[in-house]
């Protein structure tokens, strides 16, 4: 790459290139071209971002949301237009966030969940509508969490699991139904996990792996949810 970076995001564009955005020494973004194996610099984000989320929308744009640090910038979002290589500011979220998740629903909207709001972990979730470029709050979650994982299931519901709540690390999990905008608690994981990963298997089951279950202990265990 042209600039070293950490806590950045990578998004695959419709043309097959990969857009990497922040966190670099300056707020440059760059593109990787698989056909040439080369990186080229593209437009800079309007606000330097770390620990944000990036979502490749169905219309070809890329949405980035939030950033680490100042509360005022945790609300912000912007869109990358690959046709001109420029970032433009879009509607701000209703709640400031960091260490949240963003999931693209089957209807093209983006579901953003929880994260740190100031010094506390939040219960809120909201939706970004690419057609209006506005954010609206959706159903409140049953458990506050940050550093969690979120994955869109085959049927379109979203599973969030683990993370850290206001009392410490958590093993809780819940499902979001886009049709009703309601969250439903499901069975807990066997271990509390923060900064874990989740993957959908060919069977439709969800595999979660690793993560912290204390401030010093990193897990090597994995588990499968077979009840959804």
Structural features, described:
The chain is mainly β and 228 residues long. It has two domains: 1-92; 99-228, Neuraminidase (6 Propeller), CATH 2.120.10. It has one helix and 23 strands. The chain has one helix at 71-74, and strands spanning 9-12, 18-21, 29-33, 38-42, 53-56, 62-65, 77-81, 86-89, 101-104, 110-113, 116-117, 120-121, 125-129, 134-137, 149-152, 158-161, 164-165, 168-169, 173-177, 182-186, 197-200, 206-209, 222-225. It has a four-stranded antiparallel β-sheet, with no helix packed on it. A hairpin with a 5-residue loop joins strand 5 and strand 6 (62-65). It starts with 8 loop residues before the first strand and ends with a strand. Pfam families: Kelch_1. Keywords: Kelch repeat, Repeat.
| Average pLDDT | 94
Could you say what the CATH topology of the largest domain is called?
Neuraminidase
| Total count of helical runs of at least 4 residues | 1
Most strands sheet: 4 strands, antiparallel
Gross morphology is globular
The end-to-end span amounts to: 41 Å
| CATH-defined superfamily of the largest domain | Kelch-type beta propeller
User: What number of structural domains do the residues give?
Assistant: 2
What's the gyration radius in Å? Answer: 17 Å
Q: In which range does the helix fraction lie?
A: under 10%
Contiguous runs where pLDDT drops below 50 for at least 5 residues: none
Number of strands: 23
CATH architecture of the largest domain: 6 Propeller
Class of the largest domain in CATH?
Answer: Mainly Beta
> Which range does the strand content fall in?
35-45%
